[in-house]
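User: Continuing from earlier, I have the next pair ready.

Assistant: Great, send them over.

User: Here they are, in order.

Assistant: Folding the first of the pair now:
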Amino acid sequence: MSHDNQEFYRTTPGRTGKMMAIMLGICIVGGAIFFGLWDYWISEPAPVVAMMAGDSGPTEIAVHTGATITSDLSFIESSDFITLAFNALPGEPDNNPTINMEVGDKVIFNVVNDGVSFHAFGVTKDTEGFGGLIPGSEVASPAKPLKAGESGTSEFIAGEEGVYYYICTVPGHREQGMVGKIIVGDVAVEEEVMEAAPEPMKEAEPMEEKEPVSTEPVAYEGSISLPEGSGVPGCQETNECYIPYHVTASAGTEIVWTNDDTAAHTVTSGNPQDGPDGLFDSSILAGGLTFSVTLDEPGEYPYYCIVHPWMLGNITIE
């Protein structure tokens, strides 16, 4: 049909009725399928769905129904930075204090970094390592830790009986002593130090002598390595926390560092006793990453790792 050179297309009432009937049938069948699977829709997602969403496992949901406890914790370090702890060093009062609570109680943690290294905080049920943190218990993170003098607050609600651990979540710091117990309920706690049966005497074996490391500076010839294992105390005994640990270079030379370790480190100008001097700082340097700086003024440039302060290095610009 046309009117004033315009065309209009129309259908018959029969065809319209058929179309409406088909659409109604689709709605009915779809509704039947949906409500027939109602138990599925209201259930938890399948494990594979949770994994694809980035959820590594079920999350403990705890409800605060009991008392509120306040715990003030301070990150501290020994003078050689080898021993780390909360509140006091081993053998001193209040070292890594144990927290006792009941199911439903809540602990409010007030943590402060009174050391010179970087630290972070969290609560876990894992007996070792720095994973499995209880959501809401974290203060900072290994990637964005607390610097010296910084502080934060978090909380932990006990959802079930058992032994939990509050730790420094920076890799390696738990193993150096930054770990305390949270005992929830009336549970038996195994003693960590057990008296072992005496072993039969053995002939002493001669100690292997390490090759002496030259203390003389060497000319800069390429990337300075942060070697594998430098995040564990010991490399400072042979000046191998940075390799080479003391280099000389001409003014204007670009100095490059490469983190060949699996642990995160920093390259920070200054020294552990006085702290950073502000000349250069790589911030957190993950494994495999590099950092560089160009120094134009002659002089001595000592540097260290804020995460592992026993790691020392030096640059002499001529």
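And the other member of the pair:
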Amino acid sequence: MIERPTYLAQLISFKEKDLIKIVTGIRRCGKSTLFDLFIEYLLSQNIDKNQIIRINLEEYEFNDLKDYNDLYQYVNSKLLPDKINYVFIDEVQNISKFQKACDSLYVKKNVDLYITGSNSLLLSGELATLLSGRYIEIKMLPLSFKEYISSTSDNDIEKKYVDYITKSSFPYTLKLNNYKDIRMYLDGLYNSVIVNDIVKRNDIADISMLKDIIKYMFDNIGNICSSTTIANTMTSKGRKITVPTVEKYLEAITEAYVLYKVPRYDVKGKNLLSTGSKYYISDVGLRHYLLGSKNMDNGRILENIVYLELIRRGYDVYIGKNNDTEIDFVAINEYGEEYYQVAYTVKEEAALKRELKALENIKDHNPKFLLTTDYTPYTSYNGIKKLNVFDWLLGKI
């Protein structure tokens, strides 16, 4: 198993706290393995294995659990009355009205409950109302670049970066020996996500149109996308679709954690803007699987990687607008705002000036960073720190 120290530390910190621990993220990003790692930790702390109840609702042996009552009765029958019971339920959204079972287990004083889900609807509607203030969400992604590097013995950082963006950051791909096998795995994963996490849950009839929109969005990561533009593009290709339908499809794709929608933020006014959102993909290897190398835009792919790393580090991330200039990312946490500009290379003077200008136009004194793949000495331009993005991704700076 590949170590996932950041996520594991979060589970450990909330162990036996009076909260439901909910791990969310795209299918096959490592949620079940995280539970395995945490169970290993519990056993190392002298927790008896009989105190651990593990259910994966995608496994055949649990097919008889049809609704919330079946799930509750099964778990209840396994509980030890005089000890803390650690209950782990994978893909809980597969159970009808699972919220009722979760609530009933949560109120038991001897149950420490952990669940996973592959759709953001898990935390909407009835569950959010029923469990308001009584859960914490751990948002999980496929492997970070640092985790990917740590799982291999190859120290060629630039080569491993190419592998990372082409062979995928899904953990299981590291077990596969060649790119042909990886493509077969990603094909199965991609179609499973579409069928199980998008089509079935959203009653989508036109799967072909859905796939066309996904392909369009994968090809336009890091570009401003509007539903109107997408509808017009599809219609111009002879695939007529309405704007509301495009919006429905985009919402379904983001709910399955395939894409992340990033709104714009007015740096001067300190408020969110209603138009001009961008989208980034949870794994750029899926993009390579679907589009191949012909549309490889190194700058936008690097931008995607930086976005994912920022949200891993706990930031709320937005596209920055400052008068007529755009900042790639405004990252906000409890300590304030930070500004990030991302460029594959700025070895040419014109490129360097262009990237610096966007940050120089910001008049406040929050930290500003320019991230590139260039290996050059550490440099600061009037307080703007130019950093090597690989060192930044690996946490060296």
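Worth noting for the second one:
The CA atoms of residues 369 and 385 lie 5 Å apart. The first helix runs from residue 5 to 13.
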